[in-house]
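#onboarding

Welcome to the new folks! Below is a worked example of what a typical request in this channel looks like: someone posts a single protein sequence, and someone else replies with the predicted structure as tokens. Don't worry about understanding the tokens yet, we'll cover that in week two.

Example request:
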Amino acid sequence: MSVEDEYNEYSDVSEGSLLGRTFKRWTAKIKEINKRYSQPRLKMTPLVKVSLLVLRLYLILLVIILVYKFYTVVSFR
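Example response:
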């Protein structure tokens, strides 16, 4: 699809601006990707699910520690 075709495809967007058309196109693409991958294609064992949960919690903990460290460094200057 050429740039002109994309421009014509989204020319009826109510915003009418290039930014509005770009945002509309990106959100449509994201919705398409989310729809395609909404159902998992692999079967996961309970151990894998627990492992992923632990990793997710660990990541959240690391982010909390990072934010706390940033706050303490900035606030005590």
